[in-house]
Please model this.
Amino acid sequence: MANLIGSAAPLHREVMGSALGAGVLALTFLTLAAPTVMDALPLAVRFLMTFVPAAIWVWRQLPAHAPHVHWGWANHVTAGRGCVLLIWLVWGWEQPVLGWESVALGTAFLLADGLDGTIARRQGTASPFGARFDLEVDALFVLVAGLLLLRTGQVGAWVLISGLLRYGYLLAGRWQPALSRALPPSRRRAVFGVTNAALLTAGFAPVFSAAWVQAMAGVGLTLVLLSFLIDMGALQARSRKIIPD
Model:
């Protein structure tokens, strides 16, 4: 037991350091970006209300990072992407405007997607935790983008469906064991997901009218709905083959 605790200590220390560093940097940015210290206070509170639960989730999922005893640069990249998303959510909710800043942030996020996986494979630190961490951050991006587009008044509440599908799918897996099975890698799933995220990102460009934003978000939603339905059908079919009549 002592050996196990000792081997896990470096990982937990690195995660705590990463979380504290990211939190301090985020709070510093929000404080400097706010017009006054009093304006920064509610931003900091809202950030912590999202950051702390996310950090707790990461901490509880760490056993899936075994047998690695170090956090690794790949997870630092994923954590950084997630932290930027939370800053975007807090700041964008306070300042609901369309702009090239959001387009640039979303584009940078999408370009960085896959970088963490590449680093993990090259450094030999890939793990089920890292894959799940990356997936959840990608899902969070879709939800945050949808929330901020809704906040601008360009689209209706239906834009949140694509961001909530992931969480609905997880809940459905609690009642339908077939849906909790691991899915094999899928190019179709990756392409549809990235296309949806790119269309939501483009929706922040001030050159598009509300009608165009709604159309792009609608196309993205259609793609991810189709992808989820295909995956759910495949899992159900596989379950029927495994379970004898």
